[in-house]
Amino acid sequence: MKSASSSATGPGDDASIARDPSAANPRTVFIAQCALATVAFLIFFYSPVIWISDSIYSMLTAQSIIEYGTPDLSAYTIPKFRPAIPAGMLAADRDNAYQLGIINGKVLYFYAHGTSILSVPFVGAMKIFGVSPATSDHVFYFGGEVLIQKLLAAALMAILACIFFRTALLMLNLRWSLVVAIGAAFGTQVWSTASSSMWSHTWEIFLAGCVVYLMLRAERRGQKRAPLSFAAVAVLLGLMFFVRPTGAVLIACVTIYVLCARRGDFIPYAIAGAVCLALYAGYTKTVFGSVIPDYYREPLAFSTLGIGLERNLISPSRGLFVYVPAAAFVLYLVARHWKNLQHKPLAIMALATIGGLLIVVSSWWLWWAGICYGPRLLTDAIPWFVLLAILGCAAIPPERRSLVSNPALAIGALLLAISIAMNARGALARETAQWALMGPIEVHALEWSDPQFLAGLVPGHPRQAIPR
């Protein structure tokens, strides 16, 4: 079928948004992809601000799996580990290894182990080159832990930018696909959070980006069954839950989508998902002594949902629409062109996923997300905003696909530029990290008189630093 854009604008028209196979040959796409990956990696890796807290010891756990076949860290000397400190406790004293605890008779990394397990190949490769999170006499080496995390996070997020690019190419032309990929890479928490260290968000959004690609590709092929694709989707979702508890939201939304829109693919999807669930349960029971570890039992307070929504969307130092205003434009784009939107079931699923994630993180008591930059807890929603951006851009009528004929696109471009500037602050300005070390965060994260993104640019109110 001839695309609407090709009939209205032609393949060489800069205003064209819809994908036209004649507009870019494979060589051009390959060069663009390599350039995107290289530039993104270099920017991510050399961005000076490293947000590392919860993820400390995750690479040491991977090293332990390589050396001893177990995540138990008892074989290592960890100077900051104090068994009397409860694992996962947000201690004001940053010298406490709150990430560790005695669990089921083992010294274990308290947070989800998916990040450590998925990182095993990279940690093993780094050890060959002499970089390790532990010294030769089995003492934890913080410098090696940080370097491995920074390299792996930068590499994963550079690859994710390419995945976004390839996903956009399923519906958009080369130029607009690059805009989507660059905007997602540098105008979101991908740059300011996920590429700085191995937060659990890092592997999760990488896997989610793969899920988005596979699902949109299946939709572009019509109702033709794609059992292998949806079996792969189930495996990716299982890994996401192993990486971070919020993966449960995605599992629920994607499962409903498959049941309603891709019923013929449900059996391979369900079988692969059941296998993943069994493996997860077996691992957690063996390691933690429980099918559901403590980290997955964090209570949610739905009575404070309204307050949490406000703080996660529009608060000065944690609001999504403050730090990624382009996200609001994506939602506008989808709503404005809903009638012309292709693959509406996918769009509904993406909206439900974003809404579910927002409800979960807004119902959690730790809404301010600890020592970090901006709306870290909503990093998980980024791949789904990218999907909506692709669908929304493709739905713009051909005659409205230029900045001259559509002022809304100019506003969108401005919001994207602001988003990039906001996330650049978190990745490049060390003052934003100093801001996060001044307490209490849950109080000053609400103060418009001294927002985190302006740290170092304007005088702020003096505060007492968190004691060491």
Overall description:
It is built from 20 helices and two strands. The chain is an all-alpha fold and 468 residues long. It has a two-stranded antiparallel sheet with strand order 1-2. The N and C termini lie far apart (65 Å). Residues 1-15 and 464-468 have low confidence and may be disordered.
Count the DSSP helices.
Answer: 20
H/E element order: HHHEEHHHHHHHHHHHHHHHHH
Strand order of the largest sheet: 1-2
**Would you tell me the structural class of the helices and strands?**
mainly alpha
What is the typical, i.e. mean, pLDDT? 90
Shape: globular
Proportion in β-strands? under 5%
Distance between the termini: 65 Å
Evaluate the radius of gyration. 22 Å
- The count of DSSP E runs of length 2 or more, i.e. the number of strands, is 2
Helix content: 55-70%
The biggest beta sheet reads: 2 strands, antiparallel
Low-confidence runs of at least 5 consecutive residues? 1-15, 464-468
Give me a quick take on this structure.
This protein is mainly α. The protein has helices at residues 4-8, 26-46, 58-68, 114-118, 120-128, 142-169, 174-186, 189-194, 200-220, 227-243, 247-261, 266-288, 305-314, 320-323, 326-336, 344-362, 382-395, 407-428, 430-436, 441-444, and strands at residues 100-103, 106-109.
